[in-house]
Design goal:
Blueprint lengths: L9 H16 L1 H12 L26 E4 L3 H17 L5 E5 L2 H7 L8 E4 L5 H11 L3 E5 L5 H9 L4 E6 L3 H8 L2 H9 L3 E4 L2 H9 L5 E3 L11 H14 L3 E8 L3 H10 L2 H9 L2 E7 L5 H10 L4 E3 L18 E3 L6 H6 L3 E4 L12 H5 L4 E3 L7 H10 L2 E3 L3 H12 L2 H18 L2 H14 L10
Parallel strand pairs: 1-2, 1-4, 2-3, 4-5, 5-6, 6-7, 8-9, 8-12, 9-11, 10-11, 12-13, 13-14
């Protein structure tokens, strides 16, 4: 069997033993990190023992389709796939795992009767084996990038096929993986199937040793705007009618300061934004940074209001004129933020972090200005630029200059919004292709003595 432990070289076996030893040594540091993170995000304090493959509850009946969605973005992509997957595999029972609190929080809404939710264990052989023994999944689906050496090896030994779905592999990540061939080689060879987003992703995944790679598209192109988000945006707009909203979407550490310095370094530019009535909507990527970013804005002299201050109400009347920055300190409202924005600066793309997903912005008709660093979503970014849904700039100052120009060019904004629809139309259909491929994988599984898979 290709990729099975019996086919590994002695060097690969020794490398995995060394890796497992290191991961065991690091477990105390993980405990400290989880306790620290739980102070701001309580989900990190939930079921900590599961992180180490220990379970107090009785083992559930096996036969799950196990889907691992590490964080929020992957869980949202899973939400697009699951209805079609449940239809393709009637009676499917889901085991949904995560590694982050935002993924866990979002994932709870995807569960149905008979489903289970758990943390993916730390990547030691013992914890992974105990996880598989407890839940007894029939098949594993890893969303996008989550390939771990012990995880793959232990699943192969337990005869649990693993599929990497909505798979992406940047040039940077591929180069990094190739530096550690004794670990990455067996891990990628051990996958049963790979459903890649783009031909470039497929090429890099094959280079890493993946044995069965098909290009089926990016699930995120099948996103729809929820009625709840549309209703919320309409309610907010009643208090924002006199303001032009420009969003800083999913900002990462350092980018807020970058934006502040670019904005305040040119008094003339700053005055022009104020004359246009611009309200900056700043939405940090990670919830644990909400308070940190709020403090940074206040120290810089910005008049700031938190979204959380509104509750279920519309924005306060003071927001119409007196507030410079609205801090988006909420979860699950990203679509509503995009819907009320004229355009957005893409977080993660101005610092060398690879950029964030811009497809959700396109689904909401919000044009995007992106910085030079979009290697995590390179083909989506190139397609967005080609469709006119996004514009690339070299740095934050150039981004602000373009925003200033675009807000005075209504025709450009109309054309850019049309480009967002073009972008979506070129990418839709991945959900159907994924569900068909995964149904075939399910049907290929051997039957149990009870006639189940």
């Amino acid at each position: 069997m290709t990729g099975s432990p019996a086919d590994w070289s002695w060097r690969e076996r020794w490398a995995l033993l060394g890796y497992d030893w290191l991961m065991q040594l690091l477990q105390p540091l993980l405990r400290i990190k989880l306790k620290r993170r739980a102070r701001q995000e309580p989900e990190y304090g939930v079921r900590i023992a599961q992180r180490f493959g220990r379970y107090s509850e009785q083992p559930p009946q096996g036969g799950f389709v196990w889907l691992h969605a590490v964080s929020l973005g992957e869980t949202r992509a899973a939400a697009l796939l699951l209805p079609a997957l449940r239809e393709a595999i009637p009676g499917m029972r889901l085991l949904l795992t995560h590694s982050t609190a935002t993924g866990w929080h979002q994932g709870r809404s995807l569960l149905q009767a008979g489903d289970q939710q758990a943390w993916l264990p730390w990547d030691t052989e013992q914890a992974t084996r105990q996880f598989l023994t407890h839940f007894k999944p029939s098949m594993g689906l890893l969303m996008e990038t989550e390939v771990w050496p012990n995880l793959v090896q232990t699943c192969r030994q337990a005869q649990v096929p693993l599929c990497l779905i909505n798979a992406r592999m940047s040039e940077k990540s591929c180069t990094k993986a190739l530096r550690w061939p004794l670990l990455s080689g067996p891990a990628y060879r051990g996958l049963s199937a790979v459903l890649a987003q783009t031909p470039s992703d497929a090429h890099r995944l094959r280079a890493l040793g993946c044995p069965a790679v098909d290009v089926v598209g990016n699930l995120k192109f099948d996103v729809t705007v929820s009625e709840q988000s549309q209703a919320l945006a309409l309610r907010w707009q009643s208090g924002l009618s006199s303001r032009q909203v420009v969003m800083l979407a999913s900002t990462r550490e350092g980018e807020e300061l970058m934006w502040l310095q670019a904005l305040q370094s040119d008094p003339e530019r700053l005055a022009q934004f104020k004359a246009l009535g611009v309200l900056w909507l700043l939405v940090p990527r990670h919830p644990q940074r909400f308070d940190e970013v709020h403090a940074l804005l206040e120290q810089a002299g910005c008049r700031c209001e938190k979204r959380s201050a509104w509750g279920d109400l519309a924005p306060t009347s003071a927001l119409k004129a007196e507030v410079d920055v609205l801090l988006g300190d909420s979860l699950g409202e990203m679509q509503a933020y995009y819907l009320v924005s004229q355009m957005a600066l893409l977080g993660g793309s101005f610092a060398p972090l690879g950029g964030q997903n811009l497809i959700e912005a396109a689904a909401c008709g919000c044009p995007v200005v992106m910085g030079p660093h979009t290697f995590n979503f390179s083909e989506a970014a190139e397609s967005a630029a080609a469709c006119g849904a996004a514009l690339r700039v070299p740095d934050m100052q150039a981004g602000l200059d373009h925003v200033l120009w675009a807000l005075s060019q209504p025709q450009w904004l109309i054309q850019a919004r049309g480009g967002t629809q073009t972008l979506l139309d070129t990418g839709r259909g991945a959900v159907t292709l994924h569900s068909k491929a995964l149904k075939a994988q399910w049907l290929a599984l051997p039957l149990t003595p009870q006639g189940d898979r």
